[in-house]
């Protein structure tokens, strides 16, 4: 009886694994050439000043629309691309497209700035910073236009290398934001050690629930620490006016979230811009 149970358990286990790996394999195969087939695009979400409501920048977010698979979310295809190495081309495409589109948008919105997400895999390239600076030079885009968003876990893979990259970028005028801060096992000391301009406070900070009081204290003190360290703060996932008012009370500088705008095509955002 025991042997049969074990066998059946393994059977189900393997089937799940197979399905997963087949889907993963399908994604990997289909991701090949997705840019050339024009299935990739960027959506942009504004980041606004908490007190004035003015938009200071947009974050570029990758979208993949496949003819059969439909819209595949970045949380699904980016991990696949990271495992397969396709993230290098994907990351290059996202950076170049974000810079080109934002530069073009400056005709209508002269102060437009763009945030681009960076994968941990990209940050481990020995020449990551040089490649970004080369792209900016090739496209004749001022480095001040760009903020790169790195996550805590990507930096932790090789702190020394990450710091070298980030310092090189900042010396050239690119700004650096720490994304999703507070989502994992965040250490406050990281904020003092990394060459950063901005901390993006993960939206889990704003969630209501049993731990709301503790999270509130953490949020308040993270904003205070960031200010003492001369880092600006962006709250992610701001979904209603009450959250925005609370962030203003706490001294948070900027906000991003559905309450301000959903991610949208850049040209559509330009007409809505505040
Ligand atoms: P992220 O960088 O933290 O981006 C913010 C995510 O939160 C986006 O999801 C955005 O649509 C979502 N969001 C914005 N406002 C709200 C809100 O008010 N409520 C809620 N519930 N969600 C909100 P998205 O576009 O699905 O992207 C997910 C993640 O995929 C990003 O998280 C980022 O880590 C990654 N990603 C997206 N584009 C790229 C890219 O070009 N390169 C890399 N390496 N990663 C990317
Ligand atoms: Mg981000
Ligand atoms: Mg984020
Ligand atoms: Mg987040």
Automatic annotation (TrEMBL):
Is Kinase a UniProt keyword of this protein? no
Signal peptide boundaries: none
Q: Where is the EAL domain?
A: 24-274
Q: Keywords for this entry?
A: Membrane, Transmembrane, Transmembrane helix
| Name of the molecule in the record | EAL domain-containing protein
Source organism (scientific name): Deinococcus depolymerans
């Amino acid at each position: 009886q025991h042997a049969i149970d074990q066998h059946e358990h393994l059977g189900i286990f393997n089937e799940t694994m197979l399905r997963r790996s087949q889907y993963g394999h399908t994604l990997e195969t289909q991701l090949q050439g997705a840019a050339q087939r024009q299935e990739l695009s960027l959506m942009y979400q504004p980041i606004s000043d908490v007190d004035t409501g003015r938009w200071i920048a947009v974050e570029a977010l990758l979208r993949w629309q496949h003819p059969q698979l439909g819209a595949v979310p970045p949380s699904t295809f980016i991990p696949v691309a990271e495992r397969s190495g396709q993230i290098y081309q994907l990351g290059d495409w996202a950076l170049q497209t974000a810079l080109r589109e934002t530069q073009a948008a400056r005709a209508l919105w002269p102060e437009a700035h763009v945030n681009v997400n960076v994968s941990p895999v990209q940050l481990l390239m020995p020449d990551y910073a040089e490649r970004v600076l080369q792209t900016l030079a090739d496209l004749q885009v001022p480095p001040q236009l760009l903020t790169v968003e790195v996550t805590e876990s990507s930096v932790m893979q090789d702190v020394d290398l990450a710091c070298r990259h980030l310092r090189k970028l900042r010396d050239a005028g690119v700004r650096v934001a720490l994304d999703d801060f507070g989502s994992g096992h965040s250490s406050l000391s990281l904020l003092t050690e990394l060459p950063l301009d901005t901390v993006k406070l993960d939206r889990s900070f704003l969630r209501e629930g049993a731990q709301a009081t503790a999270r509130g204290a953490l949020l308040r003190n993270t904003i205070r620490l960031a200010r003492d360290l001369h880092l600006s703060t962006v709250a992610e996932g701001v979904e209603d006016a009450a959250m925005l008012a609370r962030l203003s009370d706490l001294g948070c500088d900027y906000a991003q979230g559905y309450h301000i705008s959903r991610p949208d095509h850049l040209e559509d955002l330009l007409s809505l811009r505040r």
